[in-house]
Automatic annotation (TrEMBL):
InterPro entries: Calcineurin-like_PHP, Metallo-depent_PP-like, UPF0046_metallophosphoest. Pfam families: Metallophos. This is Metallophosphoesterase. One of its GO terms (biological process) is cell wall modification. Gene3D superfamilies: 3.60.21.10. One of its GO terms (molecular function) is hydrolase activity. It comes from the Bacteria.
Length: 251
């Protein structure tokens, strides 16, 4: 199990060694590395100094100023925004999808671009979103993407649309999502010093259907990496980009 790969293709290529399957819970793309501001699409386009400023504004929750900075930088750049971002994402996807072992089961993160995945997912990679699959006698359900935030990342959807995908899964043994259930200990990032958005629909499903596991990522430095909700073990399997180690699920 990996999540929040954010460009770490080198470790991703080794993540499935010795396992029957690799499960990826999204966020393959690296737009900006908050630990190293020289890495990612943003600094490649606008330089490290502007990346430093953007991180400073976002960390201070000055999102309007961060968007103003972005708009000014894009206006000064002699290239279409969507074209430049898609070209950079495509380069990352080509490398990352090539690193997936067979079999891989994957869902989208909030910074991913779902419409591009069919072009890069090989025959050994199964993409699931609001869908189930049987693995080793257990039923795994997958819910991709994130909920709407001031960050406006590429794959954010409404609470209602997200809840519908959770509902479509029904009862599963392992509930796999990119974002965590809406529990303060699981959604608070101790380094960014803010709460990320968790899903109430996931929390309700955990309490109602009582899966063995609820596995997720998204929050890079959570207050709690794992906790139990009734009969369900909830585990943040990331942050793979920095740790480079997968979480092993055995039964």
């Amino acid at each position: 199990m990996v999540s929040d790969v954010h460009g770490n293709a080198e470790d991703l290529a080794k993540a499935g060694e010795g396992a029957d399957a690799l499960i990826c819970l999204g966020d393959l793309v690296l737009f900006l590395d908050y630990a190293d501001h020289s890495r990612g699409i943003f600094p490649d386009l606008f330089g490290v100094e502007n990346a430093d400023r953007l991180v400073e504004l976002r960390t201070a929750r000055r999102f309007d100023e961060a968007r103003d900075l972005g708009r000014r930088l894009w206006a000064e750049l002699d290239v279409d925004r969507e074209t430049a971002i898609e070209a950079a994402v495509r380069r990352q996807y080509a490398e990352l999808f090539a690193a997936f072992p067979t079999p891989t089961y994957a869902t989208y993160g909030n910074v991913d671009i779902p419409r591009l995945w069919p072009e890069y997912a090989g025959p050994g990679t199964t993409v699931l979103d609001g869908q189930r699959v049987e693995l080793g006698g257990l039923t795994f359900g997958f819910v991709g993407g994130g909920l709407c935030t001031p960050m406006r990342t590429p794959y954010e959807i409404s609470d209602e649309e997200y809840a519908a995908k959770v509902e479509a899964l029904g009862d599963v043994d392992v509930l796999c999502s990119h974002i965590p259930p809406d529990v303060p200990e699981l959604t608070y990032d101790t380094v960014a010093r803010r709460f990320e958005r968790g899903s109430r629909a996931l929390l309700d499903a955990i309490r109602r259907t009582r899966p063995r596991y609820a596995l997720f990522g998204h929050v890079h430095q959570p207050l709690a990496r794992r906790m139990r909700i009734a009969a369900t073990e909830c585990v943040n399997v990331g942050h793979f980009a920095s740790a480079g180690r997968p979480f092993a699920l055995e039964w």
